[in-house]
Every structure is written in structure tokens, then in C-alpha cells.
Amino acid sequence: MKAIQEIGLRSYVRIISSISTKAREDRGDVPGWVLVTVMTAGLVVAIWSVADGQLKSVLSNSLRSVSQP
């Protein structure tokens, strides 16, 4: 039984070591994600400024129709 536990522990350590090595190698493209986030925020602001009145009327109509029987 102890031999099986040792084999299982060694396998576990090997798997964890492999995962942590892969995580260090694959760090991602941080500037790309920042650019995507900033561009998305810019699009939201641009659309909101153009459609502000229409969005307010849609929201108020929706809330009015739900609150009235």
C-alpha cells in the first residue's frame, strides 16, 4: 500500500511541476488585452453618447410596461 502511495505522490508532483512550468512559459499577451479593453470601453462611450436618448426611452418604456398591470 505504501508503494502505491509513493507512486501516486511522485506522479502528482510530476504533474504539478509540468503545469507550473507550462504556466510560466505561457504568460499571454498583456498589451493586446489592454488594447482590447480600452477599445471596448471607447466603443461603449461612443455608442452611449450617440444613442443616449433612445436608450433612456427604451428603458423607461420597458420599466413602465412591467410596473403597470
Shape designation? elongated
> How many helices in DSSP terms?
3
Helix fraction? over 70%
State the separation between the terminal residues, measured CA to CA. Answer: 70 Å
Low-pLDDT segments:
none
β-strand amount: under 5%
Total beta strands? 0
Mean pLDDT over the residues:
78
Cα gyration radius (Å): 27 Å
Order of helices and strands: HHH
Structural class: mainly alpha
> Main β-sheet, in a few words?
none
Task: Describe the structure in your own words.
- The chain has 69 residues and is mainly α.
- Helices cover 88% and strands 0% of the residues.
- The chain has three helices and no strands.
- It is elongated.
- It starts with a helix and ends with a helix.
- The model has no long low-confidence stretch (mean pLDDT 78).
Attribute tags:
single chain, 69 residues, mainly alpha, 3 helices, elongated
Provide a concise account of the structure shown.
This protein is mainly alpha-helical and 69 residues long. It has three helices and no strands.
Write the layout of secondary structure elements.
Elements: H1 2-25, H2 30-50, H3 52-67
